[in-house]
Design brief:
Layout: H1 11-108, E1 116-120, E2 129-133, E3 144-153, E4 156-167, E5 173-180, E6 185-192, E7 197-206, E8 209-220, E9 238-242, E10 245-247, H2 249-259, E11 266-267, H3 276-287
Antiparallel strand pairs: 1-2, 2-3, 3-4, 4-5, 5-6, 5-11, 6-7, 7-8, 8-9, 9-10
């Protein structure tokens, strides 16, 4: 150990003290280094432990999230199944209610108003409409056969009872009413007096209600000056019309085919109708 000489009575002590202090300082440096190494090791161990904890927590969180997702999916599927079942039950209940209303109409029908019935799914929605007609010869105009189609929607039934075909006793109309299967459409194909020119009117059912949609036919534009119609052909003195448009005969046929979905209709008068009692029994089957 190196001594530091200071000229006074306490030099040695001071020198020795200085050496001790130096050693102490040196020792503190070693201790500090040791402490630093220990601290670094502790910090490293803590960081590793922290990483392990974070990894475990992340794994738990992922597992929990997956479990919650699976639970959510299961709950969603259960809810969808419950909604589908409820929807089926609602549709079933609605159908039962519609058949019940059909039965009321049939029960209350007068034989001179409606005496023949049939169930036909006009628009192919799975629930048939109620068709009705009257064949009783004592009806107001025996030459014209009336028809009713009872449609339905979410609010109940809709009566469409202003249709007829045949030969009007007062003249002016001779025609046939057709229904076009699976389309929700009706076709009234007629010839009109006094010249017998053809016309076609298409109706369509939406939400149970049947309305006129399009019309076409032949329109006479020239008439004989002497009013002599014996050798006069009206089809040579006019034009084909579709709605407000003048068209050729070929164009007319094309538009007609498009409007009727290019489907042949079934004459309403040729439907195999049931009598009142038979229809009531048929409706009972649908209600049970």
């Amino acid at each position: 150990m190196k001594k530091v000489l200071i000229i006074n009575s306490k030099g040695t002590v001071l020198a020795i003290a200085t050496a001790v202090i130096a050693m102490s300082i040196s020792g503190c440096g070693n201790l500090a280094n040791s402490s630093s190494e220990s601290s670094d090791l502790f910090t490293s161990q803590n960081e590793e432990a922290s990483d392990n904890t974070a990894t475990e927590e992340s794994a738990v969180e992922i597992e929990s999230t997956a479990s919650e997702a699976a639970s959510t999916t299961e709950n969603t599927e259960n809810a969808d199944n419950a909604n589908a079942e409820a929807s089926d039950n609602t549709l079933s209940a609605a159908s039962d209610n519609i058949y019940s209303q059909y039965r009321s109409i049939v029960e209350q029908a007068s034989s001179t108003e409606w005496d023949s019935f049939q169930l036909i799914d006009l628009d192919a929605d799975g629930t048939p409409e109620l068709f009705a007609t009257c064949t009783d010869e004592s009806r107001p105009d025996p030459g014209m056969q009336p028809y009713m189609i009872v449609g339905h929607n979410a609010n109940g039934i809709v009566k469409n009872d202003e249709f007829a075909d045949g030969v009007a006793s007062a003249g002016g109309y001779r025609g046939t009413l057709y229904y076009i299967p699976g389309t929700g459409k009706l076709l009234d194909s007629a010839v009109n007096a006094p010249l017998g020119v053809p016309s076609d009117t298409i109706y369509e059912m939406k939400d149970g209600k049947i309305d006129y949609t399009v019309y076409g036919g032949f329109e006479v534009t020239e008439y004989p000056e002497d009013d002599n119609y014996n050798d006069w052909d009206p089809m040579e003195h006019g034009e084909w019309r579709w709605m407000d448009e003048t068209v050729t005969e070929e164009e007319y046929k094309s538009k007609f085919a498009e409007a009727t979905d290019n489907t042949h209709g079934v004459a309403m008068s040729e439907i195999d109708y049931m009598d009142k009692d038979s229809m009531l029994k048929e409706l009972e089957k649908h209600m049970n």
